[in-house]
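Team,

Forwarding the record for the chain on the shared tracking sheet. I've put the sequence and predicted structure together so nobody has to dig through attachments.
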Amino acid sequence: MIIALEGPRAVGKTTLLNNLSKTNPSIKIFHGYKYHGKHFELSKVDDFCANQLIYIRQKLEQYETLANNDINLITCGTEDIIFYTLNYPRIMGHDWTVETELHSWILSLQEKKSDAIIYLDATDEVILSRNRNDTRDRFNLENWLALWKDKMRCWFLSYRNCLYIDTSRLKAEEVAKKVHDSILDLQERNDDDKRFTFGNCSYLGS
C-alpha cells in the first residue's frame, strides 16, 4: 500500500515522519526526491523538461520497487510530480506545452497512482511560524505560499482518495496520532480489499 504525504512547505511533513518512525517502525518511510546534481535553467522549456524527466523516472522506479503488503508512506508521490510538471510553467508565466512534450511520461505517472493521499495543511501564519522555528532555510517562503499554496490544495483535494488534515491548531504529537490512526484505518480497509474513497475528500481538523 502506497500512501502519499503531501502539503505545503514547512507545514510539518518531516516532523510528522520523524514522529511516526518512532511510534510505528512498521511504516516504511520515504523522503521526497534525490537531488540529481545537474544544473538546468528552468526558464528554458528544454531544460525544464529534462529536469522533470529525471525526477519522473526516479519516482516511477521508486513506486515499482515498493511491496504491496507493506505500508509505504512517501512524501511527494506521483500526483505531486504531475502537479509540479503541469503547473510550474503556468505559475512562472511560460506558454509551454509540457503536456505534449512529456505526455507519455505523465500517463505513466497516472498509472502508478498512490493508493491514498494524506494532505497536511495550515494557515499561512502558522506555516510561517513553524518555518521560523525550523533549522532549514526555505528561501522566500511567503512568495511561495502566495503562488503555490491554494493551487496545490485544490489539486490534491480533487482526488477522491485524499484525506485532508488541518494542522493549524494541532501540536506535532496530535498530528502524528491523527495520521497514525488514519493509516491504521487505511490498512484495515486494504486488508478487507475496500476502495480508499473519502467522498469529495474527508476533513480532519482540530
